[in-house]
Specification:
Rossmann fold, seven-stranded mixed β-sheet, two-stranded antiparallel ribbon
Length: 277
């Protein structure tokens, strides 16, 4: 007997694979704020992060809330109100690793050739408005990242979302259950495996450091694939190598997204495996 729910034949559901990415130092070589935003407000990057981290420690504050507060404080001191459009413009200037711009379409094309629908998602502690201005914004289904609330004049005045390394996992549950909106409380509902929009075993999470551990662990523990990447120019592999040795990762390699890269070859193997299930 065929399983059906709401007149949807479950035996004919599409095979979906969710690929979720961190952004800073995963798709881009550095923190997105460091390239243009912080210098434009008259402060050195090292000085800004030191000041932000000191604020967080002194006030038992979430580090992401601290840097978001510091950006607004600096903008007031410099008399440069920050608008969403300004963040978007900065996003256009954020550099990306080799092959990133082409990666999303090529992975989708390969998935289609194997009968697998690829859905790309970004889950980042960085700023959503900057990512929305980047060259890859239109390549992903959803961008989950920290963001601001704007005044009636369009000026950033308060954090609307502040995503840290533990709250990132919430968005894996949202994607799995198909409850995509941040305010949708159904994300906490119990859902049978066969009713999931995307089963947890059909997840890939790509990140670069210890801040991605909760997502990496969640995905790998549920039969999915966690991938660690490192800057191919620095070749400092120790962080991701340790994550691999600790059992957090399925695989690690350089953040090289070109078609002939090791990362692409591994991704094709994952798609092949999902197609065979």
């Amino acid at each position: 007997m065929e399983l059906k729910e709401n007149n949807i034949d479950k035996t004919k559901r599409p095979i979906r694979l969710a690929i979720c990415y961190d952004f800073d130092k995963t798709l881009s070589p550095d923190d997105m704020q460091s390239f243009t935003l912080i210098p434009s407000l008259g402060m050195d990057n090292d000085q800004f992060w030191k000041r932000s981290n000191t604020l967080a420690k002194a006030n038992l504050m979430d580090t992401n809330l601290a840097w978001m507060y510091e950006l607004i404080s600096l903008s007031k001191v410099e008399r440069q109100p920050i608008r969403k459009e300004y963040f978007n413009e900065i996003g256009k200037e954020v550099p990306l690793y080799n092959g990133v711009k082409e990666w999303f379409d090529k992975v989708k094309e390969y998935g289609a050739s194997k009968g697998v629908e690829i859905e790309h998602y970004i889950i980042s502690s960085g700023l959503k408005e900057i990512i929305e201005g980047s060259a890859v914004a239109d390549k992903v289904k959803r961008i989950y990242a920290s963001s601001y609330l704007y005044s009636v004049d369009g000026i950033a005045e308060w954090p609307a979302q502040a995503i840290n390394y533990t709250t990132k996992t919430q968005y894996l549950f949202r994607i799995a259950k198909g409850t995509f909106e941040e305010y949708d409380e159904r994300v906490n509902d119990i859902m049978a495996e066969e009713d999931l929009y995307i089963p947890y075993s059909n997840f890939v999470y790509i990140g670069d450091s210890a801040t991605d551990i909760p997502c990496m662990r969640l995905v790998k523990r549920n039969g999915g694939y966690s991938i660690g990447v490192y800057d191919p120019d620095s070749k400092e592999t120790q962080k991701v190598k340790q994550l691999y040795e600790d059992g957090r990762l399925s695989f690690y390699t350089a953040a090289d997204y070109r078609e002939d890269s090791e990362l692409m070859q591994y991704m094709k193997k994952v798609i092949d495996e999902v197609a065979r299930k």
